[in-house]
Amino acid sequence: MIKFLKLLIISLTVIVTYVYAEPLETDWLALMPKQDQQALENMPDLVTHDTEEAPGAFETKGGLKQRDNLPAVMYSKNTVASLEGKLIKLGGYPVPIENDAQGKVTQLFIVPYPGACIHVPPPPPNQIVLINYPKGIQINDIYEPIWVIGKLHIEQVTNELADAVYTMQADNVRLVQESDL
């Protein structure tokens, strides 16, 4: 009987750990088809740091919109079909869009690097994910990384701020902690 109880406790522990474990982190490059990854690797350096940070850069029209004359991969709306409906954990930087009455962010874009529209060209649409999170999260600094967990969907979104080809109804959005690193 004791052996049976030990086996039962071990089995339940494994099941509970599996059920409540977060999915493994998804790399941003996994959201790009292989041909886009190769084009990105062969692209010249586009980073410029010679401009001042624009006040209200994310609130004004065109904050994450691409400028003209960039390599084609920077406008890519190509997606990875196998990611449709897949539960993922994605780390990145928030671009707040909507807040609730308490000031918590309920809709945002997540992008792979900080300041994605200030000093450097914004990411292509297949590197921007629209996140809906009705619970809301307090975001005080767009340079502070976050984790987003939920099912990824292929859905083209165009608004005055950005073009994206992925969306997520997030189950959890949280700030990255030192313990995560």
Note down, in words, how this protein is organized.
This protein has 181 residues and is of the alpha+beta class. The chain is built from two helices and five strands. It has a five-stranded mixed β-barrel with strand order 1-2-3-5-4. The protein is globular and about 70 Å long. Residues 49-62 have low confidence and may be disordered.
Instruction: Please tell me how large the radius of gyration is.
Output: 19 Å
* Arithmetic mean pLDDT: 83
Share in helix: 10-25%
Strand proportion, as a percent range, falls in: 25-35%
Total helices: the number is 2
List the uncertain runs: 49-62
Q: Largest sheet at a glance? A: 5 strands, mixed, barrel
Q: What is the H-and-E element order?
A: HHEEEEE
Amino-to-carboxy terminus distance = 43 Å
Give keywords:
30% strand; alpha+beta; 181 residues; 15% helix; five-stranded mixed barrel; 5 strands
Q: What is the element layout, followed by pairings?
A:
Elements: H1 2-20, H2 34-41, E1 87-99, E2 105-111, E3 129-137, E4 146-158, E5 163-175
Parallel strand pairs: 3-5
Antiparallel strand pairs: 1-2, 1-4, 2-3, 4-5
